[in-house]
Design a protein that fits this description.
By secondary structure, the protein is an all-alpha fold. Helices cover 78% and strands 0% of the residues. The chain has two domains: 1-31; 32-116. 3% of the residues are buried.
Amino acid sequence: MNNNEILEGIKKAFKLSVDKLDNHYMFYLDEMVTPKLITLFYWILLFAFITKGLGDIFLEGDFWRGLVWVVGGSLASRVACEMVVILFRINENLNEINEKTSENDPLSSSSFEKDYYKH
């Protein structure tokens, strides 16, 4: 890659970010940010539990307690983060079902209600 290609990639990424701001991306709660943050939070927890476990094994000499921290902490953080992500996926699926049924239902709400609840 040369410098022009890199610069064009940066310009495209910046333009997409500005377009999202122009569409009031941050002012409405149409798109969920928390599932993206949960992934980062999971990696931080994983790092913390592995560091704690290795510290117990090598610094304190307690192999079993360190193993419990590494394995147990990793599994517990994974399960907890997956539970939160599942809640958001259920919400997404319910929104999709709602959109499909409201499009096909001739007795659905008026256009005023659809426009009002759009944002």
